[in-house]
Amino acid sequence: MRNLLAFILGLFLVAILFRVDFFFYLLYFFFGIYFLSHFWLRRAVENVLCERDYQDRAFPGEKVAVTLRVQNRGLLPIPWLRVHDSVPIQLKAPSFFRSVTSLLPHESLTLGYELDCRRRGYYHLGPLIISSGDLFGIRSYERRACVSSPMLVYPRVVPLTSLTLPAHSPFGEVPTRQRIFEDPARMVGVREYQSGDSLRHIHWKTSATTGTLQVKRFEPAISIESQLLLNLNRDDYSASRVATATELAIVTAASIAHYLVEKRQTVGLICNGVDPLIGLGEPVVLPARRGREHLMTILDALARVQSSREVMAFPDLLRQSRLHITWGGTGVIISADADDALFDGMVMMKRAGFHVMLILVDPRTSYPVTRERAKEVGIQTHLIWQESDLDVWR
Amino acid sequence: MSGDDGWPGEARLEAGEPGPSTARADSCDSTAPQGEVPAWAHTAVEEGIRPLAIAAMFTCIGVSISGLALQVSPTWPSLAFAVITFLVSLEGIHSRRRLSRLRLASEDKLRFHFVEIVVLFLLVRFGVYISYGAGRLVTDLSAWTTNIGSFFDATFLIVSLFALVFWALSGALSQTIQEMETSPIERTPSTTDPGSYLRDTMPGRGRTDRQGLLNRIVGIFFWGGVILLILSGLARVNLREMVTMAHGRASGTIVNALIYFVLGFLIVSEAQYTVLKANWELQEIPLLGRLGRRWLYLAVGFLVIVGVVAALLPTGYSVGILDVLLAIVRWVIWAVVQLTFFVLFLISWLLGSLMQLLMGQPASVGPTESAPRMVAPPAPVAVEGEGWAWWPLVRSLVFWLLLTGVMGYSLFHFIGDRWGAVRWLSAMPLLAWLRRLWGGLRRGAGRVATRVRAEVAQRLAARRARAGAGTWHYFSLRGMTPRDRVRYYYLSVLHRSAREGFGRPPATTPLEYDAMLAERLPEATEEVHRLSQAFVEARYSEHSITHSDAEAAKGGWQRLRRALARLRRRDRTATS
Fold first, then answer.
1. Of B172, B221, B332, B496, which one's alpha carbon is 20 to 30 angstroms from that of A14?
2. Is there a contact between A32 and B286 if contact means CB atoms under 8 Å apart?
3. What does the alpha-carbon distance between residue B290 and residue B19 come to, in Å, rounded to a whole number?
């Protein structure tokens, strides 16, 4: 209907020429259609409110329902409204949701689609774009109705049950055979008082009952404060396995963090990957804490983090990370391979009083050689070549 | 299949939906979009409504042709021509649809059309006798037997020519609309489908240029409209006078033009819907809600609203634009002069008063001359002898304003849309200044409106609050229960005593206040005790309060009122 204006101008000339009153009526009629189509459409589309509602965190394999609520808050009906929401291809194929509807005044419509969370990552849903047009094809109008909103898919967490980490901090939760570390918070019974026993450990109620002094017996325990040190420098991974191996490293880190938090231990994360919320070149540093809330923080970071070439070298990160680990704590190093620089860093950590555990996910040199070399300096080494290798700790 | 196959959810129409409040979004899971109209409705539109509308449109043009032809030849068979136009248009649509279904070879198509045209000529030949009558048919039949040449008279040839044009145009229009719908070849077939190769090798990959088809429909509609308007105009004016621009106004509704344009817009709207729907189907976008039905309702409603609004506007003028401008200028000058005189009068009056004060004597009064009377400028003389009248002037003013606005807006957008001249025009200093001025005025008006709205809302709320606080409620003691009446008597005494300056302190119990009140009213101590006791019973006891109890309390209340009144009079006397 681009010719409508030309027709209006022609009609004006015809009306002036013939001086027929009805032609002026037709002139108003045509102009009214043109003008109201513009006015109506713009007003109507600007009164459309769109909201996207969904659970913004999910674990791999979960299906997340996204609800789009489209509401016409105005008094003008909308003959057609096309809703287009962009979705990352990793979450939905095809990578969009589209629908066409019409909306009467104050009518609202609930649309929905489902995300298939197959891959870990930090995604953005949207933008949601609505477009509409008039009834005669005179004009169309498009606007961004809803901005992008984030969606986080956590890494896969493999439930571990028998992971053994070297650590010797007292007042912990993990029982140990080394009886020197008794935890006063973990009473296991009473015994008769012996000379030298602390008066603070006397169990007064039992002493009163039995008539002889009884002292409390405590369970020996250690605390494992661990720091996960994750290497996501792409240069350290082989080109053919970089995608698989980095994901495997992240899954391993997430599984160990989960295990430690379940054991009520403190755990932290230091990683040289790229967190989109932090920016390029800045490592991810989460100091060791305990509790499920902290676990979710670690999983959030592991969901977002990406491998890159423009990151801090891992040995440098090891040197810096010593500031974040308390004496006697354990550094769990998850890397592709262990070269000389990494060995140097690990030895320095050992000498500084830390315990070190090395997990390799993409060794390019012979793993037995690396294991023997690590054993010589007292470092536990594990090879995780595929996800099922984590089963040794299940 | 849509890309949203896995979505098991739903699309809910939550408010304002005249039908059921919940509608499943089955369109996401099925190939039949939910927004599609039912099959019977589709058939009704395809086979009935659309052909009738197209035929009616061309008949409207035919009526205009008849109107002009009647001026040239009074024997023109106008009724027959309208009927023939309608029938041949229907036939043109029907034959195109039938041919597209039969998929005939070229020779068979030619044969089909030949037969059709022969029948069409016969229809024209005998159809004109709807106007001429059976007697003329008998006469002509006998004439044809003697002279076959008389069969092909001028009327027959002209009507046949128009009939052929309408037959072809209606068929083309119908076919164009039909071509807009999606065809199976346009849907992307799988690579293993033989249709895939066919589609890939077709020009434009098998896609129909729907926008081009829509433009063609709009073109037919507009050109038909132009022809109709010119013919209608020519039929209403004297051509000789028109050449010299001396013709007068022609009023009245041209029904066929109105029908033509309304039907035309409805057909264009339907074509637009068909284009959009086809595009959505090809993009596999599900349609939700009753899109098709609503489209029709909205199109009709929109045209009715615009038509009604346009009907309310003035379509003619009795005062020329120059006379209107002249009248406006005169009135403006008159208003300015009035204002100037008023200001001068004020200044001179002030100066006179000042001089009177300074000189101490009245200003000398000279010979008074009668001041010249300011006569308001007359309304311009209405064209066509309507005399001095304000209504034609106002009507003409509105008409010219509307016409100027319509033309200005249309020209601005016409030029801007085509040659990107909006930017150029916007850069002009005058227009830029006007735009800034307009923007400033809008912002200012918006601010003022917001402030006024807030102020009005605040004042209304205050007024409501005042009204609510001071509302006088009528109540009847007879309508109260005995318990409530006793409470009322007691509270009434409290109110009156408070007015006299010895109201009940908030922390005082009724019995404590009983003593205080008795002290102030020693002549009514008994009544005070009785009323206080009655109130305590009515307020705190659970046993029933009888009418006699209430009457007893009423007696005490009346006596207390009198005692309080006496006390007030005493106080007033003492004060005075």
1. B172
2. no
3. 10
As a whole number, mean pLDDT of residues A293-311 equals 94
Q: Are B288 and A103 in contact (CB under 8 A)?
A: no
Give contacts of B210 with chain A, Cβ < 8 Å: none
Cα distance between residue B298 and residue A79, in whole Å? 7
Residue B246, pLDDT score: 66
When CB atoms are compared, the residue of B16, B242, B275 closest to A104 is B16
Give the pLDDT score at B191.
67
B525-564 tens-digit pLDDT: 888 888 999 999 898 888 888 888 888 898 889 888 888 8
Q: What is the pLDDT of residues A34-85, one digit of tens each?
A: 999 888 888 899 999 999 999 999 999 999 999 999 999 999 999 999 999 9
Three-state secondary structure call for residue A89: coil
For chain B, what is the radius of gyration of the CA atoms? Answer: 44
Number of domains in chain B: 4
CB contact under 8 A, B236 and A9: no
Q: Which residues in chain B have Cβ-Cβ distances shorter than 8 Å to A28?
A: 309-310, 313, 315, 402, 406
> Which one of B247, B261, B299 has the shortest CB-CB distance to A19?
B247
Pair (B404, B492) in one structural domain: no
Whether residue A104 and residue B275 make contact (CB cut-off 8 A), yes or no, is no
Start-to-end Cα distance in chain B: 101
Q: Do strands A149-153 and A108-116 pair parallel, antiparallel, or not at all (unpaired)?
A: unpaired
Q: Give chain A positions within 8 Å (CB) of B310.
A: 25, 28-29, 32
CA distance A78 to B121: 48
**Which two three-digit tokens encode residue B289?**
């809600």
Judged against a pLDDT cut of 90, whether residue A181 lies above it is answered with no
Hey, are the CB atoms on A11 and B229 less than 8 Å from each other?
Answer: yes
In angstroms, how far is CA B113 from the centroid of its own chain?
47
C-beta of residue A106 within 8 angstroms of C-beta of residue B15: yes
- Contacts with B315 from chain A: Cβ below 8 Å: 21-22, 24-25, 28
Q: Tell me the three state secondary structure of residue A102.
A: strand
User: Is B550 within a domain?
Assistant: yes
**CB A140 within 8 Å of CB A199:** no
Given this model, what pLDDT does residue B232 score? 87
Whether pTM > 0.80 for this model: the answer is no
Contact (Cβ atoms closer than 8 angstroms) between residue B291 and residue A107: no
Q: Do B403 and B353 share a structural domain?
A: yes
* Domain A46-152 homologous superfamily, CATH: Immunoglobulins (2.60.40.10)
Contacts of B11 in chain A (CB under 8 A): 99, 101, 109-112
Run of H or E residues at A203: none
Smallest CA–CA distance from B413 into chain A, residue = A5
Q: How many residues does chain A have?
A: 394
* A vs B: CB pairs below 8 A: 221
d(CA B137, CA B125) in angstroms, rounded, equals 10
Q: Among A362, A326, A330, A360, which Cα is nearest to A343's?
A: A360
Region A226-393: CATH code: 3.40.50.410
Residue B9 lies in a domain: no
Question: What are the CB-based long-range contacts (under 8 Å, 24+) for B496-502?
Answer: B496/B560, B496/B561, B496/B564, B497/B564, B500/B564, B500/B567, B500/B568, B500/B571
Q: Is the ipTM of this complex over 0.90?
A: no
Residue B435: which domain range?
A: 428-465
pLDDT at B22: 34
Report in angstroms the alpha-carbon separations of B295 from A26, A133, B14, B291, B300: 23, 12, 19, 6, 9
B445 and B513 in a single domain? The answer is: no
Counting Cα atoms < 13 Å in the Cβ hemisphere of A275 gives 20
**C-alpha dihedral over B291, B294, B299, B304, to 10 degrees?**
-170
A253 touches A334 (CB < 8 A): yes
